[in-house]
Amino acid sequence: MSGARRLTDDAIRDALAVSARAKPRPDLDSAIARAIRTTRQDQPPLARRLGLSPGLSLPGLRVVRIGLLLALVLALVGMALLVGALLRRPVLPTNGAIDLVVNDQLIEVAPNGAAPRRILSADVAAGGPVWSRDGGDLAVWMHPPAALPGQPVADPPFIAILTADGRLTATISTVQMALGGRAVAMGTGTISWSPDGARVVFDAASGGQSRLYRYDLATGRVSDITPPGVQAQWPAWSPDGREIAFFSPQSGQDDRLWVMQSAGTNAHQVGDPLPSGITVGSGTWPPQWSSDSAQVAFDAESGATNTALYVVDVATGRQIRLGGDLQGATAPGWGPDPAQLAFTNLNGSVSGRMDLYLGDPVTGAVRLLVPNADLWGWAPDGSSLLVGSPSCWADNRGMTIPCTSGLFSLSLDGSSRRELVSAAQLDSLAPITSTTALVGVAQAAWRPVRP
Amino acid sequence: MADSSVDMVGMVRSEERAVIERAARGDHTAFDALVAARTGKLYRTALAILRSESDAQDATQDAFVAAWQHLPGLRNPEQFDAWLGRILVNTCRDGLRRRHRIQVREIDVESEEGTRAVGEREGDRAPFTAGVGEADAIRRAFERLGPDHRALFALHYVEGRPLGEIAALLSVPEGTIKWRLHRARTALETALREEDR
Fold first, then answer.
1. Model's pTM, two decimal places?
2. Buried b (16+ CB within 10 A) or exposed e, A107-144
3. On chain A, which terminus has fewer CB atoms closer than 10 Å, C or N?
4. How close B46 comes to chain A (CA, Å)?
5. CB of B98 within 8 Å of any CB in chain A?
6. Where are the domains of chain B?
7. Per-residue pLDDT band at A148 (split at 50, 70, 90)
8. What kind of fold does domain A95-449 have according to CATH?
């Protein structure tokens, strides 16, 4: 075979086919029967034996008392520092509605968790909601009515732009995307807004290549902004609007983060090459810009289940691994303060739970906020984190347990939480169906409201 | 019970729920019944990933023993097959890592497709134009891939599972599977170029 020949799906399928008649040795069943009779079963988890469900673990009363005492002692000094910090703090948006994807359905709730409602019809699956930075528009992937389980979806997904009051203002579909006669296959990738809310950048495939496209809301024009000679996925527009960070899945190019000008020019890799065996991007989270557009946090894949978290300074290329002793660090989410990066760590790969951490990319210090919680984002005012509890990340994707989590607002020190929407409410609004692709809460976006 | 009734990611049939619950309470006979209904399908999945009959036998047995051991922790019996499938894939990946550490070997799997003449295959499927030589090269290149890439290829191309189903099986979002499949394909093309040299 020559290197230039395209490898087709059929060629792979035919070469690797296993005969439907292939059968194990006849004695396999009896060998298993013998083996299990010499293997002791685990005891059921204590919580299950007691009829309890695992919840968000919070510090015990004693720890709270000690914390309160320390807080009292430091109150005067802290108050002065706090007032000073608040005076220097930029004006942040307030917290608007929360849009979250539950069992493939788009649900919207008020910032205090009131009045949860489904905002699309039940036969339209949705994903990847992201608010523009002024909170005026919501971009979301939509799937047309799903096909039967196991069958390919008949129509490709498309991007929909909705106003804050739910009006559909634009769609970006495969038909529009036939650029210069070249077909573009829309998938369910990443959408990122320009800071002025006038454009979105997203990834799609054309000719078997991953490419980046920019959509202008005013003109409806789509432009291919993929840098020459580079495949590109998972775009993230910087808060200052000047650059776009992305990953490249190409062999030999996936060991560093890519950054380019927002017009698609001057694409270059930043940071240090990652160690052998670690590749940029876990396929789950796009790169995340800090609010000052100086740093990008991204996760990396290390083997089947391990992930690592890196932060790179785009100007200097200085790169650190955050939480270096954590084997499952992922899902970075930057708060308004560039010194605060929240992330989760998968604690145990088989039946593990996510633990929620807060890290300081300057010092490299990390601290556990709460165990057993999934991170869904920051409140726009930076005062709290949006979390799911208990953590259902592993369970829902492995479906070992039909895990349902409630939506909580968690203080930045992890000491207090407030339930916004219960798991039962989410379940009743968006029940699991035979076509549900991702069970449970999959994504969430908190609408910023400018004062 | 026939293998065809088993879906590794779908729900188990309601009448099986009681059998699974009995097995979770330590009933060996109930577990034997679950095994009997699933060995064939799990074995073929393992064979697709491992490409070795003896290794596939071992992985199937190990997966069932692990399932037996941890079954009391499975809260919802209706998810038994999804859970078991995940254990099997993880067992295969572990097996490949161990195998890689011990030795490198190339064992071909006898299949109808692999032994069929080129002319017959062309008649069956018009767009396919590759010959046995290319199929052999792909199989050899497949042997060069890492465990995760092999598992992805086996589940998607050999077993024909949709990406959403693989995502559920491997406990990762569908977007992650698309990303990893893209990488796996790139790795296979690289390995094929190595085979050409």
1. 0.67
2. bbbebebeebeebbeeebbbbbbbbbbbbbbbbbbbbe
3. C
4. 10
5. no
6. 1-107, 132-197
7. very low
8. Neuraminidase (2.120.10)
